[in-house]
Amino acid sequence: MTATIAKELTIGQLAQRSGVATSALRFYEEQGLISSRRTSGNQRRYPRDMLRRVAFIRVSQNVGMPLSAIRYALDRLPEGRTPTHEDWAHVSEYWRQDLDARIAQMRRLRDNLSECIGCGCLSLESCMLANPYDVLGEHGACGPVRLLSDDRRVADEPEAEGEALARAKAAGGAAAVGATVVKDPCAPPPTPLNPPRPPRPRGRAGR
Fold first, then answer.
1. Which run of H or of E encompasses 57?
2. Structural domain boundaries, residue 177
3. Alpha helices in 66-178 (DSSP H)
4. Contact at 8 Å (CB) between 51 and 14?
5. pLDDT at residue 89 is higher than 70
6. 80 and 12 share a domain?
7. What is the CATH number of the domain that holds 96?
8. Cα 186 to Cα 35, 145, 167, 181, distances in angstroms
9. Is the residue at 205 inside a domain?
């Protein structure tokens, strides 16, 4: 006797097959990433193709994709029918560019983490050569400029770095070249030594 394959799954079956907790499946449904129908007893029933959607969501999350980007990709799938091979190929083509950019960024992190990455900490000796006066702060808002996309690595160009360095010197830079520590432009303002006292309450308690 040939076993029949159910076309729909309960939330428990979907959780068992996908390895995702039922609470996460409910969250995915609330976010519009997956969908179900309700039975007369108000129980969820998921079409089998939701297994591929859930797998896609989990793998995408594991590589750091935000839910907003995952939702945008899944919105490219057709509604009202099971996605075909061509439908998923269309999604993967959109995904490829984003994944390639993330792979390149992870490679830069792996290869350059021991060198100056333009974050502004200036804690390495090479930082004073690669990022004097924290010139990269003007372009990366004190972020890891050298690990971001190539079009933002402006300090690798001598002219741009020289102009920023000249402006820093003209403004009275925080430290001389060769120093190991300079003022961090992202640091919070210093706490005053004698902070103002709070106003005394009025009434008898304040007399």
1. helix 50-62
2. 114-187
3. 67-74, 85-112, 127-130, 137-140, 158-170
4. yes
5. yes
6. yes
7. 1.10.1660.10
8. 44, 14, 18, 14
9. no
